[in-house]
Amino acid sequence: MQELRRARGASRSTLRDVVLTAIAIVLAIFVLPQPWGIMAIGLGVGTDLSETVFFWRWSRRRKARVGIETLVGRAAVAVSRVDPGGRVKLDGELWGARSETTIETGAAVVVRDVEGLTLVVEPDPERARGA
User: Fold this and answer.
1) What does the pLDDT look like over 18-40, one tens digit per residue?
2) pTM of the entire structure?
3) What mean pLDDT do residues 109-116 have?
4) HSE-up of 120 (CA within 13 Å, CB side)?
C-alpha cells in the first residue's frame, strides 16, 4: 500500500513538474531577452531531469520486502510452551511455532525461518536480558 501511495505521489509530482516547466519555457521565450531565456530553459530542464533521476534511483535503492520474508528476524512472544512445537504471538496474530530448544510460555523469541504456516523460532537473548 505504501508503494502505491509513493507511486501516486510521484506521478502527481511529475505532472506538476511538467506543467511548471512548460509555464517556465513559455515565460522564458516571450518575456526574457533571448540569451537569458535559453539559459533559463536549459537550467529548468536540467534541474528537472537531474531531480527525476535522483529520486528514481533513491526510491529503488532498497528491495521491497513483502510476504513471509518480512517475518524473519522479528520478535514474538511464546503463548504456549514450544517443545518442539507450540504457539507464538507476533503482531497480535497467533502462529504455530517450532524450535530446537525448549521455550517456556511468555518467553521472548525471534523468528529465524518460516516453513509454510509454521515459524521456526529461537529464544531472543536480547529481550530475555531486559535490553
Assistant:
1) 787 788 778 777 777 778 777 77
2) 0.48
3) 91
4) 8
The length of the chain in residues reads: 131
Residue 121 bridge partners (DSSP): 111
Cβ burial, residue 32 (10 Å; 0-12/13-18/19+): middle
Quote the cell numbers at residue 89.
Answer: 504471538
- Read off the amino acid at residue 95: W
Instruction: Return the number of other C-beta atoms located less than 10 Å from residue 107's C-beta.
Output: 19
What is the separation of C-alpha 88 from the centre of its chain, rounded to a whole number of angstroms? 25
**pLDDT, tens digit, 9 for 90 and up, residues 47-100:** 878 888 888 888 777 766 667 778 888 899 999 999 889 999 998 889 999 999
Nearest to 90 by CA among 73, 102, 115, 66: 73
Return the amino acid letter for 118.
T
Joined together, the cell numbers standing for residue 4 give 502505491
